[in-house]
């Protein structure tokens, strides 16, 4: 099961620099001209989780395997993309396939890096991108609604159910509001997701600032923070330039000293990864033993068989039960055996909803 975040924004805002740092590769060409990223680049990055190291030490695990999140670096969008300007059609097609949007906004001045709009204004840039995404959604949804109205008149139940949600989303888009702003129940949210609207996806705003502002941001990034808060979106401040430098340091201690000199406790990338993970409403569970300590990702609300299926489809198909220990109990009692002896291991059935931090051992029969 893969979860991914698409990195979007206008050209020359730092998308590819951020992606390169995230993946610690030069897979995406970062250059001072629009459209330097022609094909979407995909990078899988480990999600920082100190719990994994703690459990690995207790279990004397030979190997540590973190859970991962996928980031997709998507070609820069320009005004008119919904009508095919620039690489519009390609951009919109690529972004429609991701689970969440990481919107990079330039919040720094530089005479060396040109801005496609001629000046630095992240709110304007965000509105430019959002407008193009809404126009694209509006076009596709109007066609979808017309088709479903005909099907609904013919008595098709699914079309009637979709119309309840899609007509509400259409009303929002026509009013200049993204589809994610509509009120909807949990079931309606599933229908909304099935419509594959770009503006229904959750958003993380990343304010890319100059090096001196990496720790606390600046006046420009504060405007982005206010926008994110008003929308209920996630927000992170980074300096892509710093992240690119840190990515070149292989020694952990050297990285730590470098960051400390800049007044930073951790990389901005770690915050971006965690924020992206939270944005997707995911939880982490663990399998821990002498061979390996392994972190796994599952959607929040998933039941035990679904979690088992993340490891292997046979585990889900032949699920019998899961032996479950909470992370705090695993640590407090010195590992699996200690937790068992203390009566902290529970046997859970197919209806058990997996909680973040669960240490699971699945029993199955195929």
Detailed description of the structure:
With 366 residues, the protein is an alpha/beta fold. Helices cover 42% and strands 19% of the residues. The chain is built from 14 helices and 12 strands. The protein has helices at 15-23, 50-59, 88-95, 122-153, 157-174, 186-194, 219-231, 240-247, 252-261, 268-279, 304-311, 313-317, 327-332, 336-341; strands spanning 4-8, 41-46, 63-65, 68-73, 100-106, 203-208, 234-238, 282-288, 292-299, 319-325, 346-348, 359-364. The strands form 3 sheets. A 6-stranded mixed β-sheet has the order 2-4-1-5-6-7, sandwiched between helices. It has a 3-stranded mixed β-sheet with strand order 3-9-8, sandwiched between helices. Strand 6, helix 7 and strand 7 (234-238) form a beta-alpha-beta unit. Helix 4 runs antiparallel to helix 5 (157-174) and helix 5 packs across helix 6 (186-194). The radius of gyration is 23 Å and the shape is flat. The model is unreliable at 25-38 (pLDDT under 50).
> How can the largest sheet be summarized?
6 strands, mixed
**What would you report as the Rg, rounded to the nearest angstrom?**
23 Å
Q: Supply the number of helical segments.
A: 14
SSE class:
alpha/beta
Mean pLDDT: 86
Strand tally: 12
Overall geometry comes to: flat
Strand content: 15-25%
Helix content: 40-55%
Summarize the structure.
Helix content is 42%, strand content 19%. It has 366 residues and is an alpha/beta fold.
What's the structural blueprint in terms of helices and strands?
Blueprint: E1 4-8, H1 15-23, E2 41-46, H2 50-59, E3 63-65, E4 68-73, H3 88-95, E5 100-106, H4 122-153, H5 157-174, H6 186-194, E6 203-208, H7 219-231, E7 234-238, H8 240-247, H9 252-261, H10 268-279, E8 282-288, E9 292-299, H11 304-311, H12 313-317, E10 319-325, H13 327-332, H14 336-341, E11 346-348, E12 359-364
Parallel strand pairs: 1-4, 1-5, 3-9, 5-6, 6-7
Antiparallel strand pairs: 2-4, 8-9, 10-11, 10-12
